[in-house]
């Protein structure tokens, strides 16, 4: 699989290589363990994203890990593959063997450099650690041309000792020097100065490439990585969604979009395929069962959503009023308007127009007044409720289909059985259908797929708790895809199964009403021509 990156084109900006360690350092997050086959799937997506260098695991750690690194090395011939190893011969041997079939490969060696690590973890002197670093880099150089060396905890190490260690490994053949902020301790000005000092102070320091590896314990991983770029680093080590030990690593999507959005100020760019950012984020989140925080920059649910009426009005007139990036360019579905008590009539009118519902001023005011009462109760008013409010105000049923009744039978020893009753708007006919599934949600969706005549792919279901306690309300978000267009339905209810069912019906109704609008518009165009 060969990927041609945009970074291969001519540019006046410095090209920053993106080194992804989601499958190695990211997987070290508690609870984030991946099966070998999951690693392979994610590695393919990372290649599609345009990653320059992939560190797919720690080969010595287990047979499954070794096999995954080996398979990724064989399959992804357009990406440089890294074999990760402690400064130990057994680790190096495993890393070398597992990456043997890669078209381009690198050995990544590390050993601690801070006094606190040397005294309490390694229990070795600086002289002993320096000798090990020299010996292991020389040993690895027998097998590979490219060797990256990391003095672990460099940002908390003595500056002179880091320079001495870097100088020693360069003499033995290291070609990339990584200066990790292992505990996320450094401030941006300190981290940038570390790179300047090492580049200037180590003999041969101007002949190698430099890499930044930052953790996010103080929330400074992206800022520190940008400081390293400003100080001469040409590679940054990142993870998708910023996952990693403790507070995580430098977030791939945050760093890349900071560079992309401010490339003229930073004087740099990457070869990342922007349109694959969102899908990559979702795949990693699902594989690791790690939900993404609502306010996570770039890929969080709220990153491009707005409830304030002032913001919504500005966005509807010109997106750039309150957004500095285009979410659709990153593959993020456009859903910028969130309807809550801070929303205005303009946003409500815009949302209903998407369903083909046009209101006069009197009807809009009535819907708005109903909406405000509902918003105080629900916080966020989902689409199905908004359409229902419009139906009440105009005394017209707008939804093609309405969920009338739902029953689910669950148990430990049998398949889950569901029964749903659906009413069709035009005929007012009610149909009751049954279905089974491994879980109650699957059984319900099977019923609804029989009842509603849409040929759409069920793409995604998200469930969120909106409150706590016995009367907790849950929000369901369902996405379906038809002809490469995504339709998203939302619903809120104390019964999360019912919320998911209503959200699915809402998504299907969107698709059907959108198709009706498209057909009507096409008819008008034909008549006018």
Q: What's the main sheet like?
A: 8 strands, parallel, barrel
- List how many beta strands DSSP finds: 16
> Globular, elongated, flat, extended or rod-shaped: what is the shape?
elongated
Order of strands across the widest beta sheet?
Answer: 2-3-4-5-6-7-8-9
CATH class descriptor name of the largest domain:
Alpha Beta
CATH architecture verdict of the largest domain = Alpha-Beta Barrel
Provide the CATH topology of the largest domain.
TIM Barrel
In DSSP terms (H or I, runs of 4 or more residues), the helix count works out at 17
How far apart are the termini?
48 Å
User: Helical proportion?
Assistant: 40-55%
Average pLDDT, all residues: 90
Number of domains: 3
List the uncertain runs. Answer: 1-9
Structural class: alpha/beta
Tell me the strand percentage band: 15-25%
User: What is the CATH H-level superfamily of the largest domain?
Assistant: Aldolase class I
Pathway: Amino-acid biosynthesis; L-leucine biosynthesis; L-leucine from 3-methyl-2-oxobutanoate: step 1/4
InterPro entries: 2-IPM_HCS-like, 2-isopropylmalate_synth_dimer, AIPM/Hcit_synth_CS, Aldolase_TIM, LeuA/HCS_post-cat, LeuA_allosteric_dom_sf, LeuA_bact_synth, PYR_CT
Pfam family, one: LeuA_dimer
Family: Belongs to the alpha-IPM synthase/homocitrate synthase family. LeuA type 1 subfamily.
């Amino acid at each position: 699989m060969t990927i041609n990156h945009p970074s291969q084109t001519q540019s006046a900006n410095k090209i920053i290589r993106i080194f992804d360690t989601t499958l190695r350092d990211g997987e070290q997050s508690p609870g984030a363990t991946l099966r070998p086959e999951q690693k392979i799937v994610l590695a393919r997506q990372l290649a599609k994203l345009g990653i320059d260098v992939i560190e797919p695991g720690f080969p010595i750690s287990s047979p499954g890990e070794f096999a995954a690194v080996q398979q990724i090395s064989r399959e992804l011939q357009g990406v440089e593959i890294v074999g990760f190893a402690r400064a130990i011969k057994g680790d190096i041997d495993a890393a070398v063997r597992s990456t043997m079939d890669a078209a381009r490969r690198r050995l990544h060696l590390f050993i601690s450099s801070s006094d606190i690590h040397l005294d309490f973890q390694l229990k070795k002197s600086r002289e002993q650690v320096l000798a090990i670093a020299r010996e292991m880099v020389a040993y690895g150089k027998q097998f590979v041309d490219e060797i990256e060396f990391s003095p672990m905890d460099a940002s908390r190490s003595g500056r002179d000792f880091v320079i001495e260690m870097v100088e020693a490994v360069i003499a033995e053949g290291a070609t990339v020097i990584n200066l990790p902020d292992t505990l996320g301790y450094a401030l941006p000005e300190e981290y940038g100065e570390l790179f300047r000092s090492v580049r200037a102070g180590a003999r041969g320091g101007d002949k190698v490439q430099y890499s930044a590896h930052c953790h996010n314990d103080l929330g400074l991983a992206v800022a520190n990585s940008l400081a390293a770029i400003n100080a001469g680093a040409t590679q940054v080590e990142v993870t998708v969604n910023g996952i990693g030990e403790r507070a995580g690593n430098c977030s791939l999507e945050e760093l890349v979009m900071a560079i992309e959005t401010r490339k003229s100020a930073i004087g740099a760019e990457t070869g990342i395929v922007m349109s694959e950012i969102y899908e990559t984020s979702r795949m990693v989140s699902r594989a690791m069962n790690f939900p993404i925080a609502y306010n996570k920059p770039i890929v969080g649910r709220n990153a491009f959503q707005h409830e304030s009426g002032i913001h919504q009005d500005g966005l509807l007139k010109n997106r750039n009023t309150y957004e500095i990036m285009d979410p659709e360019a990153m593959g993020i579905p456009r859903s910028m308007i969130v309807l809550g008590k801070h929303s205005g009539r303009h946003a409500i009118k815009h949302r209903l127009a998407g369903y083909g519902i046009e209101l006069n001023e009197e009807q809009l005011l009535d819907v708005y007044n109903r909406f405000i009462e509902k918003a105080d109760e629900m916080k966020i008013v989902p689409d199905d409720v908004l359409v229902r409010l419009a139906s009440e105000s105009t005394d017209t049923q707008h939804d093609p289909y309405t969920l009338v009744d739902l029953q689910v039978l669950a148990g430990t020893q049998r398949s889950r059985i569901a029964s749903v009753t659906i009413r069709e708007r035009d005929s007012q006919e009610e149909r009751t259908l049954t279905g089974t599934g491994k879980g109650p949600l699957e059984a319900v969706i099977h019923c609804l797929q029989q009842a509603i005549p849409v040929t759409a792919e069920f793409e995604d279901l998200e469930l969120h708790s909106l409150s706590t306690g016995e009367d907790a309300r849950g929000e369901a978000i369902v996405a379906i895809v038809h002809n490469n267009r995504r339709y998203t339905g939302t619903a809120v209810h104390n019964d999360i199964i019912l919320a998911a069912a209503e959200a699915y019906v809402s998504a299907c109704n969107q698709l059907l009403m959108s198709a009706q609008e498209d057909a009507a518009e096409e008819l008008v165009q034909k008549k006018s021509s």
